[in-house]
Structure formats: C-alpha cells, structure tokens
Design goal:
38% of the residues lie in helices and 15% in strands. By secondary structure, it is of the alpha/beta class. The chain is globular and about 70 Å long. The termini are far apart.
C-alpha cells in the first residue's frame, strides 16, 4: 500500500506559499547524483541465500575485543547478567513508561539508574539519560545558559573535539558565543571569566588522557557567576574525586564504559547530573519515588520538561527521548559490580594503561605527551603520521593509535588499555608497532 503523506493540492499550496511553480525548484540546490541516484542493485535473494550472504559479510568483521583505540570508547568486560537481564521483554521492548500502573518495574529500574549516577558524580539528581556524551554536554551547557541568563561559553581544549563540535552546533542555533582556552603542557591553562560567561566547561580526565586539577577553573567560574559543566568518564569516578566534590554544578559524559559494548561506536547513552537548584532546568525526563493512596511505595514520571508535555515556551529542551536500554545496562553493571568491584575494574585499567605507556614510550621515536598521572588513555607522539600507523597496525589485526586532531600537535595518537588486556596483548601491540615503525 502506498504511503502518501501529502495530496497534490497540499503540495501546490505549499509551493504557492514559497513562490515556486515546480517541486523540483525546492530541491534545486541539491547535487544531481542525490536527486537521481544511479542504483545498481543485485538480483533479489531468497531468505536462505540472504542469510548466508549476511553471515559471510559478518565474518569479515575484525574483533575489537583487544582494541587499544582511545577516544572514550573502549572494550570492558561485561558480566553475563547484563545481557541476560536486558534481553528480557519488559526491558528490551519497553517504551516511555507513561502509565505507571503497568510500568513499575521499568520505572524502578530507571530510578535506580538515576540514583547510581547521582552517587557516582557526587551531585543531587540525575535524569533518565540522554543520547550520548556529546548531546549530554550540549544539554548541560544550554541548561547553564538558561539558569545564568548569559550567552557566552568558555570551554577547555581538553574537552573531546567531537563534543566541542556538537556543542558549537547547538550554540550557533541559539546565538551563543563559544570561546576555547588552549591546553598548556597537556593540561587546561588557568583562566579568568568575565560577567558575560554563563557556562565554563572542562573535562577530567581530559581528551589527551591527563588528570586535571580543576579547582582554579571552578573557583574562577563561580567568582564570575558562571556555572561549571564537568565532563568525565564515569568509570574514572570509581577512583577520582567526583565532580560534586570539586564544586561542579553539572556533570555529563558518555556511559559506554559502564556495561555497554563498543557497538561500532554506538548506540550508547549520555548521562547528566545536577545540583538541586538546577532540577527544574533538567532536559529529558526524571523518575521519582512516591506513595500511593494506600501508602505503598511506587514510581512515576515526575518531571518531563519538554514541549510534548508542557507549553512550548516553557520547555527546557526538545530532546525527544533517552537511551533507556543502554542506561539500564549500566545500572545492572553497576549493581553487579558494586562500589568495590567498580574500583577494582578502574584500578586494573589504570595499571594496564601505565604499563602499556611505559613500554611504548621506551621505543625509539615515540614520546609520551600526556603528563602523568593519567587514567586509562594516553597520547603518544609518533615518528610517522598517526593515520598511517593506525592503518598498518590494522593490517596486522591490531586496533590502536587513534589519530589526534592537528590542533593538539603533529603525529599524535591516542592509546588505551583496560582490564581486558593481558600482558600478552600488550606485548603483541609492542611488537606490532616495532614492525610498523621499522
């Protein structure tokens, strides 16, 4: 059956309103190859043949379990309980739990997720998750601008460059100004902020992997009346001082290290946590605990400040949903490990990363750029372009050396290691780089 969303009369009315005579005029600026693509499709296959073809294509994928790629997406061990619970129908197929009377299980799971994120970040409240780390940062900054009623944002160059690109897109749409403070020696340089700045953004550990001391930036931001948006790897919070303890107002990041596979870079989920005073500015939705008329504990959607629920003028964000399944995977992961288990995982990853960095930096022509201490990612300067080294390693079955943008320097590459890497894995990468550089 055809799906025709607009009648010919409706199309003509639209064209008349735009002052156009033909529908093709509406798309005149698009390249011809997009308007009329030359499709060369193979002959159709039966189900058995199609499945066989898909299996043969899937077999070509290289395993990323031993990946050393940096850039915030890493392979961590995922306990079997995580996929086992997440494959249950009530989680796997759940949509927005608008009806609490039939959604108590999902609502409670989201509530537990929110509680865990609040505890990890040292802040008062978390929402039910966002799309990914980049969108979480953008929403956190917009939140700060709404609260301060200022339209300038200062961001450290230590914030992931892809996050900064997404942030720039969001800020352009609302007419806000974005200023970047460059790193000095791999760390965020001290800065002062004027009364036009509404949000100050830094990342710890930063993009190059270094662990920052954010106290001076946070103090300077608060002295100027700005709010601090703190980007961090949630796994690092098992060992490092949390954003709330530093004095940050908003904490954001990507939750992939918490029980989520690499998934070719997605889907993942973003988290956001804030202080109580910013509760009404939270994007997305919030699950809260309550009591019914008989005094029994229950869970409900308590806050959903988007235009679907309230008047458009009062909406805090038009973020349309959360990444609920991925966020609940993190909740199961955190519950399975517990605080000590999470700290053990983080400590093992740090130990492996430092061991790998020491071995690689001992090779002629390789220089460790990231100042110590670092978490489980670090940056090396290579004697050849990082993209070339990356490609040559991939031919040897080694996924490593993520090229770092030129704004940070020449021939820089990110590496990471986690608790999944054995000593033999580290030696394999060391031997591979020796071969490539030879």
């Amino acid at each position: 059956m055809d799906f025709t969303p607009h009648t010919p009369e409706e199309v003509q009315a639209m064209l008349a309103e735009l002052g156009l005579s033909d529908l093709r005029q509406l798309f005149a600026d698009l390249p011809q190859e997009i308007l009329e693509p030359q499709l060369r499709l193979p002959e159709p296959l039966g189900e058995q043949e199609a499945l066989s073809l898909l299996r043969s294509l899937a077999a070509k994928n290289a395993s990323a379990e031993k990946s050393f790629l940096g850039g915030a997406v890493r392979p961590h061990f995922i306990p079997s309980v995580v996929p086992a619970l997440m494959s249950r129908g009530e989680f796997l197929t759940a949509y927005t739990p608008y009806q609490p009377e039939v959604s108590q299980g999902v609502l409670q799971a989201i509530f537990e997720y929110q509680t865990m994120i609040a505890e990890l970040t040292g802040l008062d409240v978390s929402n039910a998750s966002l799309y990914d780390g980049a969108s979480a940062l953008a929403e956190g900054v917009l939140l700060a601008l709404r609260q301060t009623r200022r339209m300038a944002v200062v961001v450290s160059q230590g914030v992931h460059p892809e996050y900064r690109q997404v942030l720039a897109t969001y800020l352009h749409a609302v007419g806000a100004e974005l200023r970047t403070i460059e790193l000095a020696g791999g760390l965020t340089a001290p800065a002062e902020f004027d009364e036009t700045v509404g949000a100050v953004v830094l990342q710890n550990p930063n993009f190059l992997g270094a662990i920052e001391n954010p106290s001076s930036w946070i103090a300077a931001a608060h002295a100027s009346g700005a709010l601090v948006v703190y980007v961090t790897d949630p796994l690092s919070l098992a060992l490092l001082k949390p954003p709330g303890a530093w004095g940050a107002d908003v904490a954001v990041g990507d939750g992939q290290p918490l029980g989520n596979p690499m998934n070719f870079g997605g889907p993942q989920f973003g988290y956001i946590a804030v202080r109580d005073k910013l509760l009404r500015q939270l994007p997305g939705r919030l699950v809260s605990e309550t009591r019914d008329v008989d005094g029994r504990r229950g869970y409900v959607l308590a806050l959903a400040a988007r235009e679907q629920h309230i008047r458009r003028a009062k909406a805090k964000s038009n973020i349309t949903t959360n990444s609920q399944l991925s966020a609940l995977m993190a909740a199961v992961y955190l519950a399975a490990l517990g605080p000590q288990g999470l700290a053990d995982v983080a400590a093992a990853a740090v130990a492996k990363a430092h061991a790998l960095a020491a071995q690689l930096a001992s090779l002629p022509g390789l220089e460790l750029v990231t100042p110590r201490p670092f978490f489980n990612e670090f940056t090396l300067r290579l004697p050849a372009p990082a993209a070339v080294v990356r490609a040559q390693l991939a031919k040897r079955g080694l996924q490593a050396a993520t090229p770092v943008p030129e704004e940070y320097g020449d021939n820089l590459a990110l590496f990471s290691a986690t608790e999944r890497h054995s000593d033999d894995d580290l030696r394999s990468l060391l031997d591979g780089i020796k071969e490539v550089l030879a």
